[in-house]
Amino acid sequence: MGNIKGIIFDYGGTIDSRGTHWSEIIWDGYRASGVDIAKDTFREAYVHAERELAKVRHIMPDDNFYVLLLKKMRIELTYLADKGAIARESVDTLAPDIAKYCYDRARNCIEEARPTLEALSKRYPMVLVSNFYGNVESVLCDFNLRHFFKQIIESAVVGVRKPDPRIFGLGVEALGLKPEEVLVVGDSYKKDIVPAESIGCKVAWLKGKGWTADEDAVMHPAIIEKLSNVLNAAL
């Protein structure tokens, strides 16, 4: 990859969870908070919340990640209460507890990733391309990450979502480079790796536990075990 001149990073799942799908982090938070439900029931609540957040503007541009998580947990837990899976009076206690657990997990991962981002940003222009809720800039500022990225391409802002390759095309344009000169780093095979390769970018797949067993079974020559391995791929 000696001809790499710029890097596109995914955010959620890549920088903030070591490649693990965020549903798994939240599930850990549920268990740490003593929520006794089946995982399939939790996944129903997770999908419900994602769909609700896509339809209704609950997340505001200045919401940091804790506020985002708190709102998301209230939606998930209210859904579970409506289904009779948890006591309704537990929602107000559980939501901040699980949100804090997940926020702390994210911060821990981000601090681990910071030296890699700092080293790469000194050598390459970097752009963030993310499916997010319209507040990723506030999230980055809260975690002191914004300065690493030349530009932010966020789905809720530009109106294009992964796996549409056009969102990566916008990232390439922001870098002012050719696709073959850009390395895309992401955690999702279907949403990051496939569309990035389809427009000619190089890729590095930070593969953790995904949403489905089918994705977990996929292999690719660009798999990396930890984010710091990007240094070996790009430098």
The percent of residues in helical segments reads 40-55%
Largest sheet: 6 strands, parallel
By DSSP (H or I, 4+ residues per run), the number of helices equals 10
Q: Cα-atom Rg, whole angstroms?
A: 18 Å
Q: What is the terminal separation in angstroms? A: 8 Å
Q: Going across the major beta sheet, what is the strand order?
A: 3-2-1-4-5-6
Mean pLDDT across the residues is 96
Uncertain residue segments = none
Outline type = elongated
CATH fold topology of the largest domain: Rossmann fold
Question: What letter string, H or E per element, gives the SSE order?
Answer: EHHHHEHEHHEHEHEH
Give the strand content. 5-15%
Total beta-strand segments: 6
CATH class of the largest domain: Alpha Beta
CATH architecture of the largest domain: 3-Layer(aba) Sandwich
Keywords summarizing the entry:
six-stranded parallel sheet, 235 residues, 11% strand, 6 strands, 51% helix, alpha/beta
What would you note in describing this structure?
The chain is an alpha/beta fold and 235 residues long. It has 2 domains: 6-20 and 109-234, 3-Layer(aba) Sandwich (Rossmann fold), CATH 3.40.50.1000; 22-106. Helix content is 51%, strand content 11%. The protein has 10 helices and 6 strands. The protein has helices spanning 22-32, 39-55, 65-82, 91-121, 136-142, 155-158, 166-175, 189-198, 213-217, 229-234; strands at residues 6-9, 126-130, 151-154, 182-186, 202-206, 223-224. Strands 3-2-1-4-5-6 form a 6-stranded parallel sheet. The protein is elongated and about 55 Å long. The termini are close together. The mean pLDDT is 96.
